[in-house]
Design a protein that fits this description.
Layout: E1 5-8, H1 15-34, E2 37-44, E3 53-57, H2 65-77, E4 81-89, H3 119-133, E5 143-147, H4 150-159, E6 175-178, E7 186-190, H5 195-205, E8 212-221, E9 231-240, H6 258-270, E10 275-283, H7 292-302, E11 306-308, H8 311-320, E12 325-333, H9 343-371
Parallel strand pairs: 5-7, 5-8, 8-12, 9-10, 10-11
Antiparallel strand pairs: 1-4, 2-3, 2-4, 6-7, 8-11, 9-12
Amino acid sequence: MTNSLHLSHSDFSNNDDLRKATENACDLMENIYEQGKYPKMIVERAWSEHNPTINGELAHPKALRWYLKRELTRLLQKNADITIEPSRETIHLNNPLLLDHTDESEWDITNKKLFLFSPERTEISLDRLSHYTGTDPCDFQRYILFTNYAMHVEVFLEKFPDCVKPAREGVQMPAYHHKLDDNKGITLINIGVGPSNAKTITDHVAVLRPDAMIMVGHCGGLRNHQEIGDFVLASGYMREDKVLDDLFPIGIPVVPNYLLNLYLKQVLDHHGLNHRVGTVYTTANRNWEFSKKATVEQIHQSRSMAVDMESATVATNGFRYRVPHATLLCVSDKPLHGKPKLSGAAQAFYQNSKEMHLELVIETIEMVKQNFPEGLPNSSIRAMNEPLMGGGE
């Protein structure tokens, strides 16, 4: 196989030729990587007045194959010229120099999303994904669901008994993959409890460039007219978890993907389920009731209608890393209204709600795939100097 490849839309007379060309390009990138070098992609975009040439290095192209094929196809359809060639030698994970290329304080957040992560960052994230989830990064699908309850895993396994499961027991965040062609299936990850876990997993999942990340969790209802079993669809977040405050300014608004929320609401309405749309208060303090006065003041000020421990963290990393995201929570207790989360009642609620909760999100993903088979529009989370593929900037 040749060590370099040049692609131009004028070289292809039909879609079949274009498909074969993108497959060959991905094969070459995988071959270069297997030979111990990072593949480099150089993209010439004649339509871009101010940013005509973009380039970047990649790692583990096999794990990103579906995404690379899609982006290469889009670029070539816009008459871009693309060159693929070997770059520098890969840096081993046990080499101290690796971390010199993963420090986000040196991170250019305006990079095109195709080259958002350095290859070293991809290397370490995919290795840690394998460690935390017990599964191969190549098995991850485009649609990622996060839960912190084994009961949602039970429902997922009942629905998709042939899904890929962790290769070993006792992993920290077990993942389950309902695999479909072109990675169009669903991955469910049991991330455990708390914003630190939510940050850890989304730091690493983001390098796979998923089409959506959705938090499927439970919450404390904060409004008098909510009932146990009602749903909460987040429209914004009170970031009291503080996990990402040093990395991402607290004053920047973080909102869910509009279309994901639209489809989630349509599904809730279709099933006639009680729900509210509003702010979710995310805290790192599981026992926030022991600091009731200060916490309740923030809840009132933010007009929050639910409290949890992961949603804002997932959403903030989704925004940082430009991954469409949303949150659907189910009210399991009402701590401010004499209905705290007590063991017996909580277990009964979990058993009654677990199947419907997961089914709602899976139904939403099916709507997304029907309407946007090649990914949700994400103009709201593009960098300011990152024009759309067909834009004139």
